Amino acid sequence: MAMRAGLVPLLGLLAALFGCGARPDDAHDVRVRVDRVVIDDNDSPVVVLEEEGGTRWLPIWIGSAEARSIALEMESMRSPRPNTHDLARDLIQHLDAEVARAVVTELREGTYYASLLLKRGGHLLPIDARPSDAIAIALRAHAPIFVREPLFEQSHADDPSDGKSPHREI
Fold first, then answer.
1. What's the per-residue H, E or C state across 75-126?
2. If exposure means fewest CB atoms within 10 Å of the residue's CB, which of 6, 87, 111, 137 is most exposed?
3. Residue pair 135/102 in contact by the 8 Å Cβ criterion
4. What single-letter DSSP state applies at residue 169?
5. Cα–Cα distance measured from residue 126 to residue 121, given in angstroms and rounded to the nearest whole number
6. What is the pLDDT of residues 12-65, one digit of tens each?
7. How buried is residue 110: exposed, middle or buried, by Cβ count under 10 Å (0-12/13-18/19+)?
8. Residue 60 belongs to what H/E stretch?
9. Is the pTM of this model over 0.85?
């Protein structure tokens, strides 16, 4: 079952690579960096995105496997076997495409959505992705990560560096 869940985004990626995509609207995208991956009081992993050159933060609750994948990449550590995000990066490269950017696009009913934008043959190909997957792949590809402007207001997140954060780092 876990294998099948990991393959679904890859199949979508392969299908999109051979189509042509539209230029995304990036007028309201804010560049961010992955500040850290933490564990909240309920032992749930959270990736914390920090606005580059700014003061805003966006915490996104993610799965444990994705948290490990992001944390390993941030520490430049390699696992003995490639994980799904390594596989996706390698597939993208071997299909003569590159990761142009990852964008956290919306918050709907408590769930964040994202797009991974691939560049191939002069076209940008938007791929629907979970934010954690888009972030993990973008980190591996050394591609920029963005958040849509309105999401900072929607999240109502406190600054995780203010000393009040209940999170622990992993």
1. CCCCCCCCCHHHHHHHHHHHCCCEEEEEEEEEEECCEEEEEEEEEECCEEEE
2. 111
3. yes
4. E
5. 14
6. 555 555 444 444 455 699 999 999 999 999 999 999 999 999 999 999 999 999
7. exposed
8. strand 57-61
9. no
